[in-house]
Every structure is written in C-alpha cells, then in structure tokens.
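A reminder before we start the practical. When you read a complex entry, don't treat the lines as separate problems. The point of joint prediction is that each chain is placed relative to the others, so the output describes one connected object in space. Small molecules and nucleic acid strands, if listed, are placed in the same frame. In the example below there are two entries. Take a minute to note the order of the lines before looking further.
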Amino acid sequence: MSAVRRAAARSAAVLLLLAAWEGLPRLGVVDPVFVPPLSVNLQAGYDLLLGGQLPEHVRASLVRSLSGFGLAILLAIPLGLLIGWYRPVADTLVPLLEVFRNTSAVALLPVFTLILGIGETTKITFVLYACSWPILLNTISGVRAVEPLLVKSARSMGVGPVRLFQKVILPAAVPAVFTGIRLAGAYAILVLLFAEMVGAKAGLGYLIQDAQFSFRIPDMYAGIITISLLGLLFNLLLVSVERRFSTWRTT
Amino acid sequence: MTTLSETAVRTKIGIRGVGRTFTVRGEPFTALADIDLDVREGEFLTLVGPSGCGKSTLLDLIAGLAAPSSGEILIDGAPVTGPGLDRGVVFQQYALFPWRSARANVEFGLEAKGVPRRERAGRARHYLDLVGLAGFEDRYPHELSGGMRQRVAIARSLAFDPDVLLMDEPFAALDAQTRESLQGELLDVWRKTGKTIVFITHSIDEAVYLGQRVAVMTSRPGRIKEVVEVSFDSREGDLRADPAFGAYRHHVWSLLRAEVAAAQEQERAS
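Here is the predicted structure of the whole assembly.
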C-alpha cells in the first residue's frame, strides 16, 4: 500500500504536467497551434513511428552519440588514470584541461566543421570531445583523491606499484569515474542534438529543427518527447551500472 | 653462558642508532635521534611518548615504509630495505579497503603473498573467526562498527602470518568498553600465535596492561628514555586492580610527565 502511495507521490508532478499539456491547449489557455495538446503530439509521434521516420532518426542519433560516448570512455579513462597517477604530470596538465572543459564544445562546432567537414566524423568527434572532459577530469581527481592511508596500508603489505594501481588506486577511483561517465552521458545527447540541428540530414536534432521549419509542430514535439525519454533511459541505465560497481558505498 | 642467553632472548628487531630527519619548509626537522632498542622474539613491547615525539615515524621505519636518515634497523639480523610480509602493520584508522568485504580485506595480504585462491578463503575465515567475526565475512567496512573494523584489520595482518605485528595506536579511536575487550583479545591472540608485537599507545594504562616491557620516549627529537620491565606475579583476574599495576603505572607516568611538559612547550613555540 505504502509502495503504491510512494509511486503516486513520485509521479504526481509528472502527471500534472501531462494533464496540463493536454488540458490547457484544449481550453484555449495556450495557443493550440504552437502548443498542441499532448495527445495530438503523441499521435504524430505514433505516425512517425509507423512510417519508419522516427526509428530512422533515433538510430542515426544513437549511433552517433553512443560512438562518441563509447570512444570517450575508451580514451579518457586510461588517459585520466595515467595523468592522475603521475602527480607532476597532473599538476601541469590539470589547469590546461580545465580551460578546455570550460570552453563550451558548442562554441567549437564551427572549428570541427571547418576541419572535418559536415559528415558523420564531425558529429562523432564532436560528441567524443564533449564527453571526454568530464570523464577525464573526474578520473584524474578520483585517482588523486585516493586515501593516502590505503596506499600506505597496501605498501606495508609489500605491494608493488603495478598491483597497488590495480588493487587500490583503480577500485578507489571507480565512483569518481562513474560520476564523470554519467555527466558525459548527458552531454552525449545534448551536444549531438545541437550538431544535428546545425547540419544533418537525419537524427532527432534534424527532425526537431526540420519539423519546426516546415511548421509540422506536433512532429517537433514528438521529437522532443523522444529525446527526453532517451535521456531518461540512458541516465537510468548508467545509474544502475554505477550501482552494480559501487555496492560498497554508504550512500 | 652466552649461548644460553641467546636462546632465551633472541633479538627480533634491532634498532641501532636510528635517526630520522625531514625537511619542513626548507628547515631540517629532527624527528628521531639515536634510537637504540632491541625487541625480543615473541615479546609484546609497548611504546609510549608525548605526542609528536616520533613514535609513528619509528613504526614506519620498522615497517620499511620510510628509510632512517642514520643508523639501521635489523629484522633477524638483516637490515630492513623496504616493506615486507614478515611484518604486519595495524593503523589507528583501520585502513580497510571500503570496496572489499571483511573477507576480501583479509585476503588482500594473502593475494600479495601469492596464496592460491582456494586457500585464501579458508584462511580468511579462520582469522576472522580468531578475532570473533565469524558470520560477518561478507559485510563491507561501512556496515561494521569501529571495533569490528579494527578486528578485521587485525585479522588482515595476522592472516599473512608475519613474525612481527606493528600496531600504531590501534584502539585509540574506540570507546572504552570496546577498547578493553579488544585489549584482552589481542593478548589472547598474542599468546596463541607467539608474534612479536610493537604497540604504540598514548595511554599509560594500555601500555602497562599490554606490554611485557614499556619503552618510554622523550619529546622531540624522540629518543628512548627508559625501558620499563613489567611483570606481574599472576596475570589472572583484574590486572588493573593489582597494586603492582599502580606502581608501574606511576613509574611510567613520572617518566612521561617531564616529556609531555617539554612537548607542550615545543608546540607553543612553533
């Protein structure tokens, strides 16, 4: 019973939003041309789904964002571990990395386009770039924040540098690495959407932008809802993976 | 005559003219000077001294985590060149790996020693049993109380079977009751295993209660001021109520008093 009540409490705000979205345009409180009722948008989305356009756009977006995201993980985690492990290297590089992190990837899209053209490479590289910074910086700080006493304790048991890294530094850094990955997960969709709005022939960003240009407003909202669901799903997935890897944490 | 005394008291840890100097903000800082001390095989030696006298530094040197600036430390006659599994260290803050269960923490040293996987689990269970943690093998450190965590840490150090146990104020962070029961259990473990134990504490009671000998250190730079032999007619019953306990306690206290005053003076000056 209490589980039902909790579920009700947790979904109340969302349900209210959905009800308002359906009701307010129908009551004429908001202009139904610019904000069509929810059911109209869902119907449009359903049609796009049946027509095969929506799956095509989702596929295009997912391939790009997962490729960029995956490459960022493969690249940034080892690099971050390496940089964090060598303290002098970290001391030198971190200020520079902070500059890059704080330079909005979006501001650099024209540069990417200039160098790599407007194809898939650009979009994947763009996602890769944006996702790398949070993973890299969190990994570095995770490695550097390892409790010195744990290192001392392992060393007292005659553990050499390689095993120390493998058995102490690495597991201790896992939570920080996951924080980075989760941030990157959000970026992966965010920046890709932008790239697709600027120059693409497929993808959810393109769908949303194109629908707006050609005044297919319900299609636009269908695209937005899809993005929102994808984002939620992605985050949920990352959180559950994170839980699996850090059952030992108190929180 | 010589052979007899050699077999009777073999030196396990020889500390010979050991000094340790750091550089702090460009200034040389002498933590330890001219330490000479022999720890006998199978002995329980406690080490007391005013705060900042370099007790922990000395323990680090014996553990091989740092090298002395002068003099040398010998284990079984061979100089210490680094950390090793012939010595186990127990820290005040437990130093358990939070991502490992109690069992896996105990197995850590066994992995380092190269003990085969199948044997590790059995040994871990045995030592967790020995420190009274049977049934808690799968708990993570954050699911254990302070006293239980320290028990895991002790089990971890015992499991890889070092000859020497180096303990740096292991019970200082625990409440009085837990501390007393762990002291009793440690004595039991010591009797059962015959380890040589060097135990740092800032509690005179603890030092006299646990130690066969109590080494008293001076304020910085730390030297050995005196080594007090502690022996009771009987260790049965409430040792702390024994009049001899009070006498030892008072003796160590008088040795420490001047040093503590000097240490406080130093602290104010710096």
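Discuss with your neighbour: The first helix of chain A runs from residue 2 to 27. What might explain this?
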